[in-house]
Amino acid sequence: MFAARRSLRTLATTSARLSTRHLVLPTLPRVARPTRAFSASPRAFKSGSSDVSLSQKLAEELKYEKEANESDEPEFLHTFTSQGIWQIADKPGDNEIVLTRQFGNENIRVVFSVADLQNQDPNEFDEELEEGEKAEDEEPQSEILRAVATITKARYAGDSLVYTSDGRGQPSAGGALELDMTVQNGQFLVENVTFYTDAKLGQDTSVAADWQRRGLYIGPEFNTLDVSLQEQFEKFLEERDIGEGLAFFIPDYAHYKEQKEYVQWLENVKTFVDA
Length: 275
Hints:
By secondary structure, the protein is of the alpha+beta class. The chain has helices at residues 2-23, 51-68, 75-82, 115-118, 199-203, 207-214, 227-239, 244-274; strands at residues 87-89, 96-103, 106-113, 145-153, 155-157, 160-162, 176-184, 187-196. A hairpin with a 6-residue loop joins strand 1 (87-89) and strand 2. It is elongated, with a radius of gyration of 40 Å. 40% of the residues lie in helices and 19% in strands. Mean pLDDT is 79; it is low at 1-25, 127-132 and 165-172.
């Protein structure tokens, strides 16, 4: 009986193998299926859709500013330079303006910045009104700009500072005074008077020198000094033409400089957008 079953299983297996073998079809040649091509690189655009309108608006603003402002040297600047006291160092694109002059054996430098015009807080200097007092009765507050005056006792040889020697290899220049001030309503208001024993430190504008100055004693607050001493300092500055005339000139020139920089900014941005 077991033998009969084995015979039947062998026959069934053989038949299945034969039937499977006969059902195998010949392999057809492969044909490449069409595929869609993709590119990873972005599409190139010559300009954005808003470029033209932005350029036109910049051109309108530029035209308005040039027509509204005089191209010739303003009268206040002509009057100031014709006095021949101060030299103006004004580098296009820079915030700072540097005024320099000589007074006896002193080299004097006054630095101020147009950035102070942009940092004005109209509420910063408001005082509380007394009950019943109207705001329109107050005198309007003028802009406040910072200025730093540095007075160094040294001499120049060409464009280089020369420090005289006392015969012992030590500089005999009298050091430097640095006065931190604010300018408002045609007046200089001194905040601090710092003295540097190293005259070079008063003139050096490098980052290293600035860092070194920060670690030094800046002197007392000016308004804590005896009133008569404050008055003598004010006379000291006025004698060096750091007085009312210069205090009116500084904000005028700051506005003049800011206007020039704004027009140049408009031109630069328009050129960039149009490129």
